[in-house]
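step=predict obj=UDP-N-acetylglucosamine 1-carboxyvinyltransferase n=430
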Amino acid sequence: MDQIRVVGGNPLKGVIPISGAKNAALPLIISSLLTSDTLTLENVPHLADVELLMRILGNHGVDISVNGRRERQQDGYARTIHFNCPTITDTTASYELVRKMRASFWVIGPLLAREGIARVSLPGGCAIGTRPVDLFIDGLKALGAEIEIEQGYVEAKAPKGGLVGRHYVFPKVSVGATHTLMMAATLANGTTVLENAAREPEVVDLANCLKAMGAKIEGAGSPTITIDGVTSLSGARHTVLPDRIETGTYAMAVAMAGGEVTLENTDAALLSSAIEAIRAAGAEITPTETGIHIIGHGDDIRPVDVTTEPYPGFPTDLQAQFMGLMTRAKGTARIVETIFENRFMHVQELARLGADISLSGQTATIKGVPELHGAPVMATDLRASVSLVIAGLAAKGETTVSRVYHLDRGFERLEEKLTRCGAIVERIGG
Ligand SMILES: CC(=O)N[C@H]1[C@@H](OP(=O)(O)OP(=O)(O)OC[C@H]2O[C@@H](n3ccc(=O)[nH]c3=O)[C@H](O)[C@@H]2O)O[C@H](CO)[C@@H](O)[C@@H]1O
Ligand SMILES: C=C(OP(=O)(O)O)C(=O)O
């Protein structure tokens, strides 16, 4: 199993290209099931989750062709990929696959919308929480679907004439359920209004792609999304928006290690609340025409309290990384995690590097220490993995992060991007 080895102490200087967003690419790829034409996606990141989802969609009858760079070509990262699903060959998504890639549960929306039937495995939980799908089921029932849970599968059937447009109020904000119901509603009979919908930029990106395919959608990015169903969708060409979580992650890495870096192909407006927190922690951040310029002062990090919230609040996907940064703040910071019930597994690993963190329920209290010391640590989930890399960049000596398959789910060529800026980061096979 691969490990990542980090030797701390070097400031970061240079340019880091930001990849397309994992959390936009996944729903965009799934939306290819809604049309028999070709959906072309540009700026698709090369990530384990994306590769797995493409394999899963192949089982449903989606033909996939990648063009542009040969594999392993160093320059550039983005890929252009064509998805074409003339007919859906299988309306079942198996447990073996869905359990590996939670977002693949979202195929239930397009399968129901296009085929009127779907048998999708319950995804099961993951390290950061149980992550139920009750909101998906309630929402699809609201659109007229009959749903049974049989032997760990959601068996769903649309009414004879197809799903029916309805008014549905989410009892709590759910990104995945918003994506899924929005996709399902594009082919429903009549108008669907989704209230208390997720406002994430990835929801807006999906809505923009669906509109390019002929869907009638208003209000994406606001709490109320209105979808007027159409009889069919066509193909389109769409560019995956930049990854705001990757952007925030590297901004925190510069704030921690010190130095001066430009993050290219991204947009500060995608992560304003995170930028505010990183600025408050002492980094100088300036938006540029094509990205963000950051100057970090690793020896002068200020404590900042954050609470994770649905967009536009501080993103839960940057919580672990920000905790990494706070381990060397000159004072005490508090982080409250309100989205997932078990997203503090990085705490005990950061403590192995010398961090001083105590937990009380959903609140972590981080007392900044003057020095961290490298040690072997273990990645426990996707974002926790990179919080350990961030800490390792400032730790004295060598840090080895094991179980980096977690990291490969959501960070494209991380060691290459950091090494190009002067960090000592390498992947050790084994
Ligand atoms: C692939 C992708 O885009 N993943 C993101 C997506 O995950 P995902 O879409 O799974 O997260 P949700 O927004 O649905 O989850 C928010 C909260 O709602 C709960 N919930 C969700 C659905 C449901 O039916 N019932 C229920 O109770 C979840 O357990 C969680 O506590 O949004 C999360 C919150 O921004 C991010 O951390 C993930 O990176
Ligand atoms: C939790 C995340 O992803 P997923 O929903 O795919 O687990 C994440 O991207 O931080």
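step=describe
Residues 23, 102-103, 126, 317, 382-383, 410 surround phosphoenolpyruvate (ligand 2) (CB under 6 Å).
step=end
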